[in-house]
Amino acid sequence: MFPIVLLSVFAVVLLFLGFLKSRSVLLPATLLFLVAALVANFLDWNKTYLYFNSMLRTDNLSMVFTAIVLLSSFLVVALSGSFEDDEAAQPAEYYAIILFSLVGAIMMIGYENLVMLFVGVEILSVAMYILTGSDKRNLRSNEAALKYFLMGAFATGIMLFGMALLYGASGSFTLAGIASYASHAQQGLSLIFYVGLLMLLVGLLFKVSAAPFHFWTPDVYDGAPTIFTAYMSTVVKTAGFAALLHLLAASFTYVYSFWGIILAVVTAITLIAGNVTAVYQNSFKRMMAYSSISHAGYLLIGLAALSAQSRQAIVFYSLAYSIATISAFGVLMLVTRQRGMQTLSSNPLSNESFDAFNGLAKQNPLLGLAMATSMLSLAGIPLTAGFWGKFYMFSTAVERGQIWLLVVAVLMSAVGIYYYFRVIIAMYFRDGATEPIRISPVFRYVLVAAIILTIGLGVAPGLLQGLF
Questions:
Q1: In whole angstroms, what is the distance from residue 170 CA to residue 168 CA?
Q2: What digits encode the pLDDT tens for the residues 73-108?
Q3: What pLDDT score does 345 carry?
Q4: How many CB atoms within 10 Å of residue 308?
Q5: Taking a C-beta distance cutoff of 8 angstroms, is the pair 118, 173 a contact?
Q6: How far is CA 272 from the centre of its chain?
Q7: Distance between CA 220 and CA 132 in Å, rounded?
Q8: Which residues contact 40 (CB under 8 A, 6 or more apart)?
């Protein structure tokens, strides 16, 4: 509750700060606001409260997910210093929209009523539509925003229709009321209850880029400004999976036999579609888009094999994935900016290819190390956080007895090693005309922090459990 109030107030304050002649105050102010929200998030640790007529809940699990989205937002905002140099950019508006979107993300994490879930999804989605098309001079950005808006509107309509059917069957929008109705599964449930559940799942699976509802992801991630792609692929995905976990664990455990196999099939399709398609991408940004789809598949394993261990697995995986992804996009931003200045290319696609990383590690050891660490973590190589994230996910599948799903996931992990290592090979084993890239202190701190967190959680995975 505290972060929601603070972020709403801080976003309005940022809009007023935008009237100042100097933009230099906006970035430090936004980072300070995010730190304040992160601290306030833990004021109710080990306590459980219900707000707004029991529509919103705060407990330890919701606070941990909120901390992940706030930390991810902090890292992304810290990488956005280039806004100050772009006269056409409106950093005050961008930062305010990010803070407002976080309000929606937190609502998605802690909802106890489907109405609150819908409000949270809409706040977050509308903010993402705007940020996707924020580069008004770029046709790719305009096209991506239009595609995202149209497909997102259809998905939201389907999700809202599903909520209406669930209400018609159970007579309640609350998770407890729906769970009470679902507990009579042995006596037979209404058909519209199952249809409503499927439609609600379709809407939420669209938000997390799960196949076959993933077709918007490559174009939107590719067309959006890179800084907002990093935000979208981490914060939105974390909030989406927190919402799915809470929904299924709180209301639909009694009908697991119905949705469990459906979600397992969706998981397998998502893993195959994401990993196989990423193999033949020539653009690093589009590869990361398909990589995001594949990681949605790994996270879905924890839901398809829902158990007590799923919470721990999804929390750890979300944190590991977010850190590695933000670090990778941060390096991409520096490389594309430098390469664009060197080549004076009007085609941004040529600056986002794998060839743009040729020889990067020789002239820029820190950037090479940050990118290599990110790729190794996303590939699930030992001594990185990503390895333990996948290990925890695979453990949930074994616990549930879904060995076939585990086999698919392991095989697709092997496929993923190929396209992640393409970047490492380009940086360390190929020659390029890359000159030393100037790295601002804030960029340097973020990349070093990402390296330390990725390796630290890989060496001592129990550290996160010890803290929370």
A1: 6
A2: 999 999 887 665 555 567 888 899 999 999 999 999
A3: 45
A4: 9
A5: no
A6: 19
A7: 7
A8: 2, 3, 6
How many Cβ atoms sit within 10 Å of the Cβ of residue 136? Answer: 10
SS (H, E, C) 291-315: HHHHHHHHHHHHHHCCCHHHHHHHH
CA 468 to chain CA centroid, Å, is: 21
Tokens representing 38 are: 């992160």
Per-residue model confidence (pLDDT) at position 229: 92
Q: Report how far residue 223's alpha carbon sits from residue 256's, in angstroms, rounded to the nearest whole number.
A: 38
| CA–CA separation, 229 and 332 (whole Å) | 11
Helix, strand, coil: what percent of the chain each, to 5?
80, 0, 20
Identity (one letter) of the amino acid at 351? N
Containing H/E element for 411? helix 403-429
Q: What pLDDT shows up at residue 338?
A: 73
Q: Identify the helix (H) or strand (E) that includes residue 51.
A: strand 49-51
Please give the Cα distance from 113 to 254 (Å, whole number).
Answer: 18
In which domain, by residue range, is 104 found? 2-467
- Residue 299: HSE in the Cβ half-sphere, 13 Å Cα cutoff: 32
Q: Which residues of the chain register pLDDT less than 70?
A: 82-89, 339-351, 433-434, 466-468
Tokens standing for 58?
Answer: 């705060």
Closest CA to 351 of 360, 364, 342, 339: 339
Residue 260 to residue 405: CA distance in whole angstroms: 12
The predicted pLDDT at position 17 comes to: 86
C-alpha to C-alpha distance for 151 and 140, rounded to whole angstroms = 16
- pLDDT, residue 188, reads 78
Q: What is the DSSP string of 168-199?
A: HHHS-SBHHHHHHHHTTGGG---HHHHHHHHH
Q: Is the pTM of this model over 0.90?
A: yes
Number of structural domains (the chain) is 1
CB neighbours of residue 444 within 10 Å: 13
- Which residues, including other chains, have CB under 8 Å from residue 113's CB and lie 6 or more apart? 54, 55, 56, 173, 174, 175
